[in-house]
TrEMBL record:
Domain Rieske intervals: 6-105
Matching InterPro entries: Rieske_2Fe-2S, Rieske_2Fe-2S_sf
One Pfam family hit: Rieske
Keyword annotations: 2Fe-2S, Iron, Iron-sulfur, Metal-binding
Name under which the protein is recorded: Non-heme iron oxygenase ferredoxin subunit
Entry annotated with the keyword rRNA processing: no
Amino acid sequence: MSENWTFVCALSELLPGEMKTAWDEMTSVPIVVFNHDGQYFALEDRCSHEDFELSAGGYDPGSGSIECVLHGARFDIRDGRALCAPAYTGVAKFPVKLEHDAIWTRDDRE
């Protein structure tokens, strides 16, 4: 498990309803971080249906979901679970911490 946190951005750079991407250098995993009404969530930036970046799709702050632009699979940003076909498997959720006026995340899978 990685103990190294990845810097995403300054807190002021990720407003409610926005998302930012980051790259975990230790595990070579792309991560997308969301500001959902002042709560921060991070998911692996990879659709579980087909290996494609979720961040290219649409984040809907109202429903707290992101839709993969490739085939329309949707995922809950709070826990990564799949919300509709063609995805039946969720995506990995990662921890987020706020420290030194910045947002940090990491791939904490073993």
